[in-house]
Structures
1.
Amino acid sequence: EGSGKMASLDRVKVLVLGDSGVGKSSLVHLLCQNQVLGNPSWTVGCSVDVRVHDYKEGTPEEKTYYIEFWDVGGSVGSASSVKSTRAVFYNSVNDRNEYGSCKAYAYPRRDYDREQFADNQIPLLVIGTKLDQIHETKRHEVLTRTAFLAEDFNAEEINLDCTNPRYLAAGSSNAVKLSRFFDKVIEKRYFLRDGNQIPGFPDRKRFGGGTLKSLHYD
């Protein structure tokens, strides 16, 4: 009976995008298995894993959902071949603006028009997966740049070390941001199909104009 109930859960799809080697698979494994991925390998095509999430946990609206993580391989090759390879896995991302957002996030090293995301309604989460590999003397500079990137995407931001589960410990600020992000994804998928503003999106202050070159660390 329990397994049948779980099988009937509604689900949402989260695309995990980024350059090759940034730690996408390690992140997904940590999120879904609560374990460090000991020997990560290159993802060819796409890998899918699932996590159970309690929407609005502790409230009368609480409901359990599956979160499907589509770990899309950061293919090595020309920009056109990478785009065509990844596009196969965007088939359920039907909104044109949402697809544009995915493409911009998938290629963070390029310049982009920040105004494209000014009124973004798509839940985005920018995750820095290798905080431990940033030298102390560079950490402030790098984290400031990732903060600007998240600002431009109207996204929440998390920085962690995927080899240390404590960064996602229950009750931590990262865990709270992650849960809030999943709630927004569920709201967008099931409750706000008319495109209204998603509750809880931060009213972010903009930090000046122009474009921003993204960094190698995403």
2.
Amino acid sequence: APQCPGIEPLCLDLADWDATEAAVGAAGPFELLVNNAAVAVLQPFLEVTRAALQRSLDVNLQAVLHVSQIVARQMIAQGVPGAIVNVSSQASQRALRDHAVYCSTKSALDMLSKVMAMELGPHKIRVNTVNPTVVMTDMGRINWSDPQKSAAMISRIPLGKFAEVDDVVNSILFLLSDKSAMTTGSSLMVDGGFLVS
């Protein structure tokens, strides 16, 4: 907010459908949207709980669908072109131990984004994903703080490091900008080469 005084933060639980509808519906008008909220509840496949699955589906998939519906409807009503970027993960395309739910929700997000791109394209709304490797956010530090675990992952990244927040932000800015005016339904890997290793 200090860098962009015109931004008005909304603090709400995106898993709460009605509260999200009221808060986001009253905001706007919109031309751009970045869906970045996510949870990563890591459990071995045989120990996945219903609560972890539901929470992950609510935030990682349902919230993206719902917020995007609200924003896209406003974009269409305004008759202006728009861009939506959904923050996915390399985990949408590569199985990771203890990530059964996270990998699954991110794979679903990639496909949701493709369907959105197809259906919203005629309204001049582009939809893409960025798919980063581990990013050094608070969530990234919590889940990858074990040096043995992180070293094993970094060894599989040709560039030899995890992503910084700016690496992802710069990719998002590209996909929101006119510099990517012919790009929709695509996934931009920000993974240091993880998926090619």
3.
Amino acid sequence: LFSKMSKTCAIFGGSRGIGKAVAELLAQKGCRLAIIARNLEVAQTTARNLGAGHLALSCDVSSEQEVQKTFEEMQRNLGPINYLVNAAGINRDGLLLRSKTEDMIAQIHTNLLGTMLTCKAAVKSMIQQQGGAIVNIGNVVGLKGNSGQSVYSATKAGLVGFSRSLAKEVAKKQIRVNVVAPG
């Protein structure tokens, strides 16, 4: 169905929101996609609606083992990953004084650690292919802050520092890393 030249893209958080919109655009451009979400059924529905040849996978990005298994599965089914989009994120709004520690940890693990883990796995694959591109979805609150979103804002600000540093680490390997901060 796809030519040998078609690029393969992994979209974490690809089943809804910004991730789904990115998936629709890339599918139109002829990319082979892996739609990855915590909810497999929703990911499968999204992948089916994009047409044939796309893969749906379930993954909790905060688990290094799950991320590694997901990348192995993508390599097996789609070949090497050329593009990575990190749109998986959770937001538990609330004033800091009312925030539960486990909610803080969940946001840090999904929004920040999860992106680090998927980038680590993708970079390994991209170095072997001599290039690739990563886009991490941030949020303008990571730059400006917002009342009631201190923890979420911290995770999105962390993405900016992480992505800038990673971009410098992998530039010589022909891998681009960018953050898009909507809002």
4.
Amino acid sequence: PSMRTPTAMIVGLVLCPCGLLLTLTGTLAPNWRQVSLIPSQPIDLTLEQGIWDLCRERQSSHDRLCGQADELGYFEQVPVQVARGLMPTSLVVTLLGLVVAALGVRCWQKEPRHLLAGVAGLVLLLSGLLSLLPASWYTHELQALPAPAGSTLGVGYSLVLSYLGSCMEILGGLALAFSFHRCCKER
């Protein structure tokens, strides 16, 4: 008996929701960049900069304060503004793609709809690119974005998660896009 749901579709339907969760966390969590070893500040103080919030944390006491004032104009920077626009857009496009994918893969039908699954793949591929772009640009500008002079700058976990999520969505989207091949073979 033939397998009803092609492997590529299953791969796409596993990777894309995982990508969505990672991208969502990356978008919301305020840690795209970590600023540490700030001169004239306690040695264990870390500033965490996201695209919506700025937090400061003391490593020794784990005292964490968010909603810090943006004195250096960090939020006005173009890579941060672009991320604020594209990350939520990517999340919406991912949700849209997953709805279309669910309709295309439809496990309760005898045969999946290859054309619909293929379209979903392209939508999810686009959503992955929409979040990969700001993550890459931010990484490229990481050292250039305003920070207290003499401090050490590092990549935050939100940025890493955004990258991973984008890549999962791109791979999942490509896997679903393979459905076009089946669609053309049947014609």
